[in-house]
Amino acid sequence: MSDIAITLNGEPRRVAAGQSIADLVTSLGLKPEKVAVERNREIVPRSTLAAVLLADGDELEIVHFVGGG
Amino acid sequence: MTSFPDTWTVAGRTFTSRLIVGTGKYKDFAQNAAALEASGAEIITVAVRRVNVSDPTAPMLTDFIDPKKYTYLPNTAGCFDADSAIRTLRLAREAGGWDLVKLEVLGEAKTLYPDMRETLKATEVLAKEGFLPMVYCVDDPIAAKQLEDAGAVAVMPLGAPIGSGLGIQNRVTIRLIVEGAKVPVLVDAGVGTASDAAVAMELGCDGVLMNTAIAEAKDPIRMARAMKLAVQAGRDAYCAGRMATRKYADPSSPLAGLI
């Protein structure tokens, strides 16, 4: 299967086509239940992370909680 | 009238501790967790940031501070316009499932003063989307009322610039905000040491939010305890109703019966 180009947290990245956002999150070594994902400026509800397939040109933000005041 | 326990309620949620602490600037998560324990705080502020994609095994805040035990209050620190603040909190709600949030929209890096026009705009949008925004703001009684009308569930005026430790600079405006507010008022930012926290509480604030004063103390755990006690002392003093001031001395011992 071919690669697609996405932007992940501001950095260009090539990933295998046909995978879901949950696949990507897991392949990065992250736990889907500990992060939130925005795709092309829209929140992707956690319950749908496994259903949403990555598309060429997608811009993803994957965030979590860190210390702050 | 003395009554215990003394609790406060924000957006229908009741808390015993009137101290909210941040989780930034600590040496490590273990020190942060120990200071939190010593502070007695029930609510902590947290920031929302991109995950470190290159090192996913890095320790995470949630591993040290249990989100089931403490109320996480996601903030919008670092946001300089309404849109980015709203975007950040939408992500925070998805990450944690919490609608109680801390909104701060900053105007400039040097002072970290709030941009009230953007703050007000963001408050309106967030309230419409079902968020419960506790809002960092200038110490201006009119701005505080406008935020309340826009849907702020708490107003949180600064005592002094964020991270400055300069203490409550304008007691008059803080008191005026307290007198006029129908929602809880918390001093957010500017506290440097325990007496500053006590002053905020003596002015009638419902609580105090701080981060640097604890995290940058030489002994953060002991300072956390000091802040806990100061907030309690200030609250008790406010509830007790202080004595009136006099221009001159008034002896405490009876004048009659002197030898």
Question: Can you offer a commentary on this structure?
Answer:
The complex is a heterodimer of chains A (69) and B (259). With 69 residues, chain A is mainly beta. Chain A has one domain (3-62): Ubiquitin-like (UB roll) (Roll). Chain A is 10% helix and 41% strand. Chain A contains one helix and five strands; from the N terminus they run ββαβββ. Chain A has one helix at residues 21-27, and strands at 3-8, 11-16, 36-39, 42-44, 59-67. Chain A has a five-stranded mixed β-sheet with strand order 2-1-5-3-4, covered by helices on one side. The longest helix of chain A has 7 residues, at 21-27. Chain A is globular and about 45 Å long. The model of chain A has no long low-confidence stretch (mean pLDDT 92). Chain B is of the alpha/beta class. Chain B is 37% helix and 16% strand. In chain B, helix 3 (82-96) runs parallel beside helix 4 (116-128), helix 4 (116-128) packs parallel to helix 5 (141-150) and helix 7 runs parallel beside helix 9 (220-240). Chain B starts with 7 loop residues before the first strand and ends in a 19-residue tail after the last helix. In chain B, 46% of the residues are buried. Classes of the chains: A mainly beta (69), B alpha/beta (259). The interface between A and B is medium-sized, with 26 and 36 residues.
**Stretches of chain A where pLDDT falls below 50 for ≥5 residues?**
none
At CATH level 3, the topology of chain A is Ubiquitin-like (UB roll)
Low-confidence stretches of chain B: none
Counting copies of identical and different chains, the oligomeric state is: heterodimer
